[in-house]
Amino acid sequence: MSEALSFPTLLSSAVEKSPDDALKAQRIAAFNSLAEQGLPTTRDEDWKYTDLSVLYAHNEEWLASGNVWQTPAEPDLAVLASVSDLDADWLIVQNGLPAPASLAAFSRSGIHIASLSTAGAAETPENPLALLNLSQLSDGLSIHVDQALADQRPIGLLFVDDATVSPVATSRVDIRVEPGCSVNILEAHVNGTAATANCVVTVHAAAESCVNFVRLQDRGATQHLNSGLFVTPQQDSEFNFVGFDLGGALVRHDICADIAATGSKTQIAGLYLTDAKQHVDNHTRVDHRVGPAYSAQHFKGILAGRSRAIWNGKAVVHAGADGTNAEQSNHNILLSRRAEVDPKPELEIYADDVRCAHGTTVGALDDRALFYLQSRGLDKQAARALLVRAFAQQIVQTIPIPNIEEAISERVAARVDALIADAFDD
Amino acid sequence: MLAVNNLHATINDEPILRGVSLAVQAGEVHAIMGPNGSGKSTLAKIIAGNDAYTVTDGEIHYQGRDIVDDEPEERARNGIFLGFQYPVEIPGVNNAYLLKAALNARRKQRGEPEIDAFEFLKLAREKMAALGMDPKFLNRGVNEGFSGGEKKRNEILQMAMLEPSLAVLDETDSGLDIDALKAVAEGVNTLRSPERAIVLVTHYQRLLDYIEPDHVHVLSNGKIVKSGDKSLALELEAKGYDWLKEAATA
Prior knowledge:
The complex is a heterodimer of chains A (426) and B (250). With 426 residues, chain A is an alpha/beta fold. Chain A has helices at residues 6-16, 24-37, 53-64, 100-105, 116-119, 128-135, 367-374, 380-396, 405-425; strands at 89-94, 97-98, 111-115, 141-145, 155-160, 168-177, 182-189, 196-205, 210-217, 224-233, 238-245, 250-259, 265-274, 279-288, 293-303, 308-317, 324-334, 340-349, 354-363.
């Protein structure tokens, strides 16, 4: 508690000194909302498994440095080598700021890019970390799509950071897709050096639009990440998301869809592969305010070492949202006795005519499948590896974006092999 | 080829096999019949090395060596094939991948080079055509979403590719319609040869109309209670198993 005391004062004075741009009023409003609800602690139900005090300490250190408001630097293009296997047109977000040269170099028909310091941010949900993000956001990206681009190369959002610039990287991207239009987004967090990143992405999917979204999180072994993805699907729109957590020390994702128009299809899937002392927390929430609409939350995890994962999937079917169809599942393989996973499916239903299904499992490998493979001549270790890879592959197969599945599949397989190698050392 | 001597086995300390002895020579087809719960599936799984069961006494000699302590994969590489009663669905593992890995494990054991991709596909397509299987099954997950008949055909395909010395087929006929049964039987008959032995575990005589056995054994309460030629199967079909159960407990 004591270290949190100076936080509001520091943040308040930082916000006052913030640049006089299109974001200023929004920063102040966000700070006021945050001040009202306070920063979450492990005493809050939604945050009970994930202790953010380390993250707050980094953030406070950054605020105390007085170096919050930054202007973007030119990107180190060498960082693109880390994603050269992924077929995308990359925009580089460096220490939270869109890199000007990469913006200038980006030219695609039907995609319009602006900075949030001139355009202002889209509506921000009352999520405390999203409010913190906006309070201290120097700049961000606005991406506006007005063509059907689902069969084309994804927009790559590459998040990199450098501790020599700042210990915290605060970034935001607002995506707006016009009616009947579509786009592919590939968000990548790669090994940087900053202690903490706070990244918020909002997606407004207009009527009959389609947004395919893949996130690859592969931060360094000592790095933290807090991310929020907020989607507002409009009538008959489609949102397909798959997230991969391969790296990071302390990772928390909030993925929220707020369905206030009928006929939409929202699919949220994820795979977390953890070992050592990694902590990965995926919180998903879908609000069905009207029906009919479909949502799915399907997560899988493979855990080794002393790692810990949380999946908390919530579907809230509000009164009158008849015709809702909501699915949830979470399946986990524990490769180590000391790994721990907390699957928590939650359904809150206030409507009558709904279909909701959920299932969770935590276990070791299926002995019958293992024997089947051995009886075909595969040795036990190879059979185990094959089954674990296959388990992960089922999420990889749901990638909705063309030409990136193979590269991600290889990254996932390499990570799975590392987990298995560790498991046998156990 | 195979000599099972006084085999006793348990699962969770519950005795299942209580002294099974069986000798199978190269070139022979044996049928093991018996009522539900007699231990015939257990015998098949133990020959293949399933470690859910514990062998408490007796031996299993294969090609002159006791294999009781061998891992299932060693037995497979040395030419033992188990056709599963319930082939396992393994989503995410490609059928072609498994077939190729299985074939290469066997070839490696024999000191042969790995099969190349073209040769593999040619061989697999040829065997599939003979079994009336659509080549698209190669690219599906192992047994994923296959019907009962498709799963059994897939077992026979694996057997045909691996060319085992000893094939143990556990209730391969169960749940098959007549066309699938004929296709599966033909696959087995194609494999009959003087160097190879086949053990059919079956509840019904029906399969034996299509695959003619040299010897028929009846397993009851964990023991072989009667052996004979193919006429024994017909006798069982006519009289049922009860008269033998009484003989076993008497």
